[in-house]
Amino acid sequence: MTSLAQLASKCVGRRIAVIGDVMLDHFLYGRVDRISPEAPVPVVRFDRDEYRLGGAANVARNVAALGGRVSLVGLIGDDEAGVRLMNELAAAGIDGRGLVRDPDRATTRKLRVVTSRNQQVARIDYEHDAEAGGAVLDALRRQIAAAAEGAEAVVLSDYRKGVVNPAVIGAAVDAARRAGLPLLADPKVPQAERYRGATLVTPNHHEAELMTQTSIRTPGEARRAAEMIHERSGASVLVTWGELGMWLLDASRTPAVEEHLPAAAREVADVTGAGDTVIGVLAMGVASGARLIDAARLANLAAGLVVARFGPAAVSAAELSAAAEAASR
Phi and psi dihedrals of 160, rounded to 5? Predict the structure, then answer.
C-alpha cells in the first residue's frame, strides 16, 4: 500500500491540463492610522503592491509548485493585467501558451486593499464575465484539445467568469474521454448536471448547499448532499467543508466508498484559494494512479498548509512530503 509520503513524491513530473477562469490577484498593502475626514472610511497609507496568480491560474501554480507540468487554458484581455499575469505564469514555470487573448475582454483582476495586519479594507473587481463565444470559443476548443493530448489528468476550474460554459465543458469532457483521462471539476453554478461527464466534482459546502437546496451542518447531511450531487452529475463528489474537513463519495468503486476526512489545519489565516490547492493536488494524485481516497487525504493535508497563509498560496513538494511523513507517525 502506497503511503501519503510516497504518493506526494510520485506527483512530481505529472502532466496536468488546467482549463478555466484565470485571474490576477492584486494586493495593495498599506498602514491605517486614521479615519478619513471626508467619509467614515480608513485612510490607507500605501506601502507596496503584490501580485499573485488566482483562479485557474492558482490551480496551475499549485500543480507547478508540487513539481508537476501544467498546460493552462483560459482567457485574458489585451491589457496590462494580462501581460502581468503572463509574466507571473512564466516566473512560476507554467506554460501559458494555451491562454487566448480577447481584446474585448478585461483580464480578471481582483484588487484587495490590505492593512499591514493582513486585514482586508476593500476589494475592487475588474472583470468581464460574459460567456465566451464565436472565434474566441473556437480558439478555446482548439487549446483544450491540444492541452489534453499531453496530459495525465484534466481540471476544470469554474469561477463564473465566462470560460467554463456548457460548450467548454463539453469540449473538455470530449477531450478527456478521447485521451482516457480523469476530468476533475471545481464547480461554481448550482446546476450539478452541468458537469455531467466529469470524473469528480469538488464543491465547497456552500456550493453543495446551493446545488442540493439543503443545509449541511453534520456529516450525515454532507453525505446526503454528496449523494444528491452524484445522482445529478454522475460524478464522484468531494465536498470541502472548511474546519470540518471533507466528505468523499467515490462512485468509481463498487460499492461506493464514502468517508469523512477531518480537517488537517491547525491554524487558519485565510481560506482564499484553498479549493484551488485541493483540486490541484487531487489531479496530481489521480494522475499518479492513486485511489481517490488517498488523493483526497493528500489534498486535505495540502489544504491544511495553505489556509495558514494569507491570500492564494501553493504548497511545495517538500512541504507536502514533510506533512505526509508527519501524518503517518
Answer: 60, 40
Mean pLDDT per segment of 10 residues, for the chain of length 329 residues? 79 95 96 93 94 95 94 97 96 94 95 90 94 96 96 97 96 97 95 96 95 93 95 96 87 89 68 83 95 93 80 76 77
pLDDT score, position 309: 73
Domain ranges of the chain: 4-23+54-107+130-328
Active site residues: 276
pLDDT value at residue 318: 81
Instruction: Tell me the C-alpha distance between 78 and 100, whole Å.
Output: 10
Longest dimension (CA), the chain: 66
Instruction: Please state the length of the chain.
Output: 329
The CATH T-level fold of domain 4-23+54-107+130-328 is UDP-N-acetylmuramoyl-L-alanine:D-glutamate ligase (3.40.1190)
- Give the number of C-alpha atoms closer than 13 A to the C-alpha of residue 309, restricted to the C-beta side: 13
Phi first, then psi: give them for residue 4, nearest 5 degrees. -65, -35
Q: What is the pLDDT of residue 268?
A: 59
**Angle between the 292-306 and 317-328 helix axes, to the nearest 10 degrees?**
110
How much of the chain is helix, strand and coil, in % rounded to 5? 40, 30, 35
